[in-house]
Design goal:
With 507 residues, this protein is an alpha/beta fold. It folds into two domains: 195 residues, Spore Coat Polysaccharide Biosynthesis Protein SpsA, Chain A (Alpha-Beta Complex); 245 residues, Spore Coat Polysaccharide Biosynthesis Protein SpsA, Chain A. Helices cover 29% and strands 22% of the residues. It contains 15 helices and 21 strands. The strands form three sheets. Strands 10, 11, 12, 13, 14, 15, 16, 19, 20 and 21 form a ten-stranded mixed sheet that branches. The longest helix has 16 residues.
């Protein structure tokens, strides 16, 4: 009965979130509380700088919003369009005389953009607590000439690789800078240069999950090209591990794809978990003689135990866990994933997985969805822009699916591998990723590695009648160990629905 209620809530949440009035409802119902929760005190003061481009309109609205935002100082206008104003300068570098020697907090916005009421009070409170950070950013939306608001961007915590493809910070942030830094700003693109200098501070950028900026336009995401940098001269060996039971056609397609993979050092281990189909048995025997190692492990299906057993005999420096129902599209998928897995601060790396119909099956995993975890952007068309192109941009993430997961063997062993007791079938990948994250090895989503996933064709669905009790136990374990029903995912957002896998407003 509880599962039926949860599925009903998921469907209702998805329908409501897609409504054209969803954001209007959120503004009326949730925004006042979100703003009130961030207000505390108003220290230190923040200097507002307005970038006035030639021909920019809406300056009067911008100036009026600065007063309502709680500014303690007259704003400074920069650019030719500011000529004749009381406080205006020609170039950003001329700001330096107004900067405190210890550094000042600057809020740079464009003419025509507006600050939310009380925005500077909220920023000031955050700045007082910022410690070593020099950058604090907030959410934003678009505002029309009639004052109507739309297209909210509810942002994740600091995500450096996502920022490389999508500048979601410039124009909706405050930056702490000293006079020397400001004096050295270039005449062109100075605002983005100021953001980049703040990223060199010892502290990470701070995210305030509240809409403090209403903008005329904002930078659009740019889907990156396939990486051009080569692998190291001596790339690490990779062990590809594929559990299977029968379903020879799926396994044949998967193994053929591994053999076509453009990577210089691959060892393949197939784990046969009690296949009894004659054709499958013949195929496995052929693999034995063709250089692919087959481990025969009987007994009930326990994904974690099977893969841990394979790791114990794996010779590769990097592990690639692969479902037998994965189909390769291009030959460079593994090299792209290994390239990320070799980074010192990255743990598990996941690919973008598509269904046969071209829709997304996996674009990263977020915790808290349905109280446990869910695949981001599921069922979105592969080429659709979706929520700010998030499904097509490389980024840090809380977890990735074990259907195609690459991780350095040393890191896998350091966290104890898969949990055989608590997660024999489901959520073992999420648990692994969260253990790696806790050690400082963040999970990473690499969409430029794209494969096809014939999901759960071999082991069956978790919602099937015979699997429900087992799945409920694993979900309960995930909540108990990682509090996924209480803590919100830092790469998701508290104002996005926890009841669906698409990025929809919580209504």
């Amino acid at each position: 009965m509880r599962g039926l209620r949860l599925r009903s809530r998921n469907r209702i949440s998805a329908l409501a979130g897609r409504s054209s009035h969803a954001y209007d409802l959120w503004i009326a119902r949730d925004e006042p509380a979100a703003i009130a929760a961030q207000k505390r005190w108003k220290e230190p003061a923040i200097l507002v700088v307005v970038d006035c481009q030639e021909g920019a309109g809406g300056l009067d609205d911008t100036l009026a919003s600065i007063v309502q935002a709680g500014s303690a100082h007259e704003p400074i206008l920069i650019g030719a369009a500011a000529a004749g104003e009381q406080a205006c300068i020609e170039h950003a570098s001329d700001l330096s005389p107004t900067i405190d020697p210890r550094g000042s907090w600057l809020c740079v916005i464009s003419a025509g953009d507006r600050l939310a009421r009380g925005a500077l009070e909220i920023y000031s409170a955050a700045a007082a607590d910022a410690d070593r950070s020099c950058l604090i950013y907030s959410d934003d939306d678009l505002i029309g000439v009639d004052g109507s608001r739309s297209a909210p961007q509810f942002k994740p915590c600091w995500n450096p690789e996502l920022f490389e493809s999508h500048d979601y910070i410039s124009g909706s942030a405050i930056v702490k800078a000293d006079a020397m830094t400001v004096a050295a700003l270039p005449k062109r693109h100075w605002a983005s240069a100021l953001i980049k200098t703040a990223l060199n501070c010892p502290g990470k950028p701070i995210h305030l999950p509240v809409v403090l900026h209403h903008r005329r336009t904002r930078p659009a995401p740019k889907v990156p090209a396939r990486p051009s940098q080569p692998l190291p001269d001596n790339p690490p060996s990779v062990t590809v591990i594929v559990p299977t039971r029968n379903h020879v056609q799926l396994l044949r397609t998967c193994i053929d794809g591994v053999r076509r993979t453009e990577y210089p050092a691959i060892e393949t281990i197939v784990i046969d978990n009690g296949s009894d189909d004659p054709e499958t048995i013949d195929f496995l025997q052929g693999l034995d003689t063709a250089g692919t190692r087959v481990l025969r492990i009987a007994g009930p299906f326990n994904y974690s135990a099977l893969n841990n057993a394979a790791v114990a005999v794996a010779g590769g420096e990097v592990l690639c866990f692969l479902n037998n129902d994965i189909e390769m599209i291009a030959g460079d998928w593994l090299s792209m994933m290994v390239r990320q897995a070799l980074r010192a601060d990255i743990g598990a790396v996941g690919a973008r997985l598509l269904y046969r119909d071209g829709t997304v099956q996996h674009a990263g995993v977020y915790t808290g969805i349905g109280g446990g975890a869910g695949h981001a952007h599921r069922y979105q068309d592969a080429e659709a822009t979706g929520y700010f192109e998030r499904a097509r941009l490389p980024q840090r993430i809380s977890a990735v699916t074990g259907a195609c997961l690459v991780v350095a063997k040393e890191k896998f062993l350091a966290v104890g591998g898969f949990d055989e007791k608590n997660f024999p079938v489901a959520f073992n990948d999420v648990d692994l990723c969260l253990k790696l994250n806790a050690r400082g090895w963040q999970s990473f989503y690499e969409p430029r590695a794209t494969l096809i996933h014939h999901e759960s064709k071999s082991r069956g669905s978790d919602s099937a009648k015979g699997n429900r009790a087992r799945f409920a136990d694993e979900l309960a374990a995930l909540k108990r160990i990682w509090a996924t029903d209480i803590q919100r995912d830092p790469y998701h957002h508290p104002h996005l629905s926890p009841f669906c896998e698409q990025f929809l407003i919580s209504v």
